[in-house]
Amino acid sequence: MKFIVDNWMLILIVLSSGAMLAWPLLRGGGGGALTAQGAVQLINRQRAVVLDVREPEEFAAGHATGSRNVPLDQLEAKLQSTIKNKTLPVLIMCATGARAQRAVAIAKKLGYEQAQAVAGGLKGWKDANLPIEKA
Asked: What residues are annotated to the active site?
């Protein structure tokens, strides 16, 4: 008990730093927990589909090899015709990951339970030196 009283400040620091480390886990991972390398593993092992939700002009300038383009504002209307098998993992990508998070919510609402955003979007994909193609 004397230790706790004498070192209350250190204990407070330990508890607060532990809470800060646990916060992203508690709120669901934040800006896309799936790394580019994890996405490649899902593509190779589970035949995951990569969906790019950027505008067609952005998509034409460069996109992940084999990805399909459905702009975010058309996602709700076109997703079911673009990806018919709802059991496949759907890896959603945009420029940096912000639009992809919104797209994941839409995809899950439509029944694509394995929809995930790729962390960092196309920028993270490029940073991992993964293949890019232009339309």
From this structure: 94
The rounded distance, in Å, linking the Cα atoms of 34 and 10 is 34
**Residue with more model confidence, 26 or 36:** 36
Burial (Cβ within 10 Å: 0-12, 13-18, ≥19) of residue 4: exposed
Six-digit token pair at 51? 């969906």
Question: Residue 27 carries which DSSP code?
Answer: T
Question: pTM for this structure?
Answer: 0.75
Contact (Cβ atoms closer than 8 angstroms) between residue 125 and residue 93: yes
Residue 69 pLDDT > 80, yes or no?
Answer: yes
Model pLDDT for residues 94-113, shown as the tens digit of each residue:
998 889 999 999 999 999 99
What is the DSSP track for 71-119?
-GGGHHHHHHHH---TTS-EEEE-SSSHHHHHHHHHHHHTT-TTEEEBT
- How far apart are alpha carbons 65 and 134 in whole angstroms? 9
Please tell me whether residue 110 adopts helix, strand or coil conformation: coil
> Can you tell me the distance from the alpha carbon of 74 to that of 60, in angstroms, rounded to the nearest whole number?
17
